[in-house]
Amino acid sequence: MKREEAFLLVKEHIKTPNLLKHVLAVEACMRELAKRLGEDVELWGLAGLLHDLDYEYTKDKPEEHGLVSAKMLEGKVRPEVIEAIKAHSDKSPRNTSLAKALYSVDPLTGLIVASALMHPQKSLKTLDVQFVLNRFKEKGFARGANREQIKSCEELGLNLEEFIKLCLQGMREISDQLGL
Predict the structure, then answer these.
(1) For 8, phi and psi rounded to 5 degrees?
(2) What pLDDT digit, counting tens, does each position of 95-131 carry?
(3) What is the distance between the alpha carbons of residues 99 and 83, in angstroms, rounded to a whole number?
């Protein structure tokens, strides 16, 4: 599946504007990580873009999240994308760099967006890594952004600061689409 086809599928199944922005942000981060780690940029981007394809159907049934997407994508994407999508929602082990990356990126995008929204300029372009790191340390800030999950970036050989920097770079490239 090519990116254009994946994006059409996403627009067909994701109607909530913030969720659409979220999958675009995750895609951007995954692409940036793939570049840094010498991985397949298109494949990693695809996993990011498609990772919450079933969310609007499973938001009240978390036990099905990721599994419905896997069925929807069977035979359309490479098996490692499906495994990463299942792994990001704890339905499969995180045995690959792709799965580990998607798992740690997913909550980080929310933390970065929340940080940008409380930043004086409310813009990704002026947001810096230190500002996000400071917000990361505040337990009450963006409570939904699981800090342990984000810190699992270390399994990729990246420290938290570099991980945030890479994701911030990726999200800045699509800041207009994200409205930030």
Answers:
(1) -65, -40
(2) 999 999 999 999 999 999 999 999 999 999 999 999 9
(3) 7
**Do the beta carbons of residue 178 and residue 124 sit within 8 Å?**
yes
What is the C-alpha to C-alpha distance for residues 72 and 62, in angstroms, rounded to an integer? 16
pLDDT digits (tens, 9 = 90+) for 59-92: 999 999 999 999 999 999 999 999 999 999 999 9
**Direct distance between the N- and C-terminal alpha carbons of the chain, in angstroms, rounded to an integer:** 29
Domains defined along the chain, listed by start:
3-174 (1.10.3210)
Neighbour tally for 138: CB within 10 Å: 9
What's the pTM value of the predicted model, to 2 decimals? 0.96
